[in-house]
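Students often ask why we bother encoding 3D structure as a string. The short answer is that it lets us treat folding as translation between two languages. Here is a chain of 81 residues written in the first language.
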Amino acid sequence: LEVPLVMTNSDFFPIVVLQMVKLTLLHGMTPMSAIGFVYFGSMLASLGQLREGYRFANLAKKLVQRFGSKEMAGEGIAISS
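And here it is in the second language, the structure alphabet:
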């Protein structure tokens, strides 16, 4: 999702990330929630909020471990690096 979105109009990217986090808060955690949280953490870090960004990246890591989702682990590592 992120590659086509960024390549076409990166202005929508924060909106999509916030929607991912919102859906997680409304409907509960899933393996995909980790991706939303790592992107959100990355956004926070890019705005200078490094500690908060790290916390969301760490939350994403814990979700990957909880669900045992190897697919999400690889993407999460790539995003947060």
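Translate back mentally: The chain has a mean pLDDT of 81. Keep this in mind for the problem set.
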